[in-house]
Amino acid sequence: MTMTKTTGAAALPLNTILDGDCIEIMNDLPAESVDLIFADPPYNLQLRGSLHRPDNSQVDAVDDEWDQFASFDAYDTFTRDWLRAARRLLKPNGAIWVIGSYHNIFRVGAALQNEGFWILNDVVWRKSNPMPNFRGKRFTNAHETMIWASKAEGGKYTFNYEALKALNEGIQMRSDWVLPICTGHERLKDENGDKAHPTQKPESLLHRVLVGSTNPGDVVLDPFFGTGTTGAVAKMLGREYIGIEREESYRKVAQKRIAKVRKFDREALQVSASKRAEPRVPFGQLVERGMLRPGEELYSMNKRYKAKVRADGTLIGADIKGSIHQVGAHLEGAPSCNGWTYWCFKRDGKVVPIDVLRQQIRAEMQA
């Protein structure tokens, strides 16, 4: 079902696959209307001749017309034009992901910078089950590169750090992702039983991208939609999507695929929030509300130091006065200190971190 979101005088064709040239269509959509773009552009593989396995069977390589360009100049012009159209569509705090191989990603990276994007990270997708190098003349090509960039330097892009950390069993997510390529039931087939698309991306890859850099309700555009991995994962995760695809066969497969997808329930869509996104609570508010009293003593977590609370929300120690952070840093001889996790207070004979009081106020604010 087609949904629309009004943007000025125009409406976005949400949750639809648009037929046509991606540059022309993007230029016709409302400016600054999209939160994220995920782009899997033609790789310009420059294949010469056919490729065979050791048993002399032919490899189903990417030799489609859409991946063929007359020259590097032609490819660079195409890249510049679609990136320019994409940047126009992004909201001021929007971002873009572009995936590619060694054939094209370096040219795309330069074009991104030339068009004013600000590169945030390059992420290496390490394929746990790559296709071997049959000729034995090069290393097995076991990875692809994704570039993540904000619309401009200083943009307040979405980054769900805590959610990605939770996905990685509590460890900070690194920029090398080990995920398998599409095989088995996930690999879509056409009516003849052949691969529906030669470069279909795994849903696990898009899941990580969308959980990490979008929020429920965000609009995600994919200008090279293919068989609809971006749309399928966006629908599951409660994001809106817009796909652009000029090949009818790919659109048919994508439409059929997405129609079968069920959106996760509201509770399941929630992810671990970034601490930076939580409401700011000044330490002085704890004093104003009587949760801590002027003159009350706070104790360092390591029990080596103590300081008194002042009426204005500052602390005073043996030879220092200032904020909870400044006093903690001075006492420890450290360049900085998170006072919320450093200081504790006593209640009923127990030592309690002051951050418990901050979380109590935050819970009230979000109720």
Provide structural commentary.
- The protein is of the alpha/beta class.
- 29% of the residues lie in helices and 22% in strands.
- It is built from 12 helices and 16 strands.
- It has helices spanning 22-28, 72-89, 105-114, 161-167, 203-213, 229-236, 248-259, 266-269, 283-288, 324-332, 339-342, 355-366; strands at 3-7, 10-14, 16-18, 34-39, 90-100, 118-127, 143-150, 176-179, 219-222, 240-244, 297-300, 306-309, 315-316, 321-322, 343-347, 350-353.
- An 8-stranded mixed sheet has the order 3-10-9-4-5-7-6-8, sandwiched between helices. A 6-stranded antiparallel sheet has the order 14-13-12-11-15-16.
- Strand 12 and strand 13 form a beta hairpin.
- Helix 1 (22-28) runs parallel beside helix 2 (72-89), helix 2 packs across helix 3 (105-114) and helix 5 crosses helix 6.
- It is elongated and about 80 Å long.
**Major β-sheet annotation:** 8 strands, mixed
Strand arrangement, largest sheet? 3-10-9-4-5-7-6-8
> Runs with pLDDT <50, length 5+?
47-62
> What structural class results from the helix and strand content?
alpha/beta
Number of helices: 12
Whole-number average pLDDT? 87
* Radius of gyration, in angstroms, nearest whole number: 26 Å
Shape, per Cα inertia axes: elongated
| First-residue to last-residue Cα separation | 34 Å
Question: H/E series, N to C?
Answer: EEEHEHEHEEHEHEHEHHHEEEEHHEEH
Percent of sequence in beta strands: 15-25%
Helix content: 25-40%
**Number of strand elements:** 16
